[in-house]
Amino acid sequence: MRGIEAAALGAALALGACAGVPVVVTHDMVDRDYYRPAIVNAGARGAALPAAVAGAPLPGVDPAAALAPIHLPSRVNPRGLVLAPDAELRVVLVFNPIDEVGADTACGPLPALQAAAGAPGADEFSVQAVLCAGTRRVSTAIAHGPKPKNLNDPAYAAVVEGALDKVMPFDNFYEPVVP
User: Fold this and answer.
1) Does residue 21 sit within a domain?
2) Are 162 and 25 in contact (CB under 8 A)?
3) Which residues constitute the domain of residue 81?
4) Stated pTM of the model
5) Coil, strand or helix: which one is 43?
6) Which residues, in sequence order, are CB contacts of 93 under 8 Å at separation 6+?
7) Each residue of 52-91: pLDDT tens digit?
8) Which pLDDT tens digit goes with each residue over 89-105?
9) Backbone angles phi, psi at 162, to 5 degrees
10) CA-CA distance, 7 to 17, in Å (whole number)?
11) Number of domains in the chain
C-alpha cells in the first residue's frame, strides 16, 4: 500500500473511530486531473450539494430521509445533501451495492443504478459514494461498517461520511519534493 493510500485508510478508520464505529473504505478512486473542492462548492445549491440515491440504507427509508443525517467534509462549503438526481454535479449514493458500480453506470440514469443496490446485510452496511459531473465519474469510494439500527444510529452517518470523505479529498494530492 502506498503512503497516500495508507494515510487515507488511516484517516477513514479514524473518522469512524471518532464515533466509536469501525469503518473500512475500499475501492476508492479520484480523477486527480479533474477533482478540486472548488467544483463541489460551485455545484452547491445553497448549503447543500445535489444528490441521487439508489436503494435504501434500511427497509422503508425514502431517499430524502436517507440524506438528512449526512454532513459533508469540512473542506467543502456545502454542509449537507439535497435530493436532486438530475443536477449536473451531484453525489450518487448506492446503498448496499451488489458489486462496485463501474464508471459507465455510476453517473448514468438513476433507473440503471437501482439494479446495482442490494438489501442490507444481516450485520454489515455498505454504501458506494460517487461524485459525478454530468456523466463523468470524478471520484468514488465504497465504505463498509456495522449495520445501523436506524438513521439516528452513529454507524449510519459514520459509514456514509467515511465514503464521502474519500470522494471529496483535499486537492493537494502530491507531496512536496524535499531536496
Assistant:
1) yes
2) yes
3) 3-167
4) 0.85
5) helix
6) 51, 52, 53, 54, 66, 67, 127, 128, 129, 130, 160
7) 999 999 999 999 999 999 999 999 999 999 999 999 999 9
8) 999 999 999 999 988 89
9) -65, -40
10) 15
11) 1
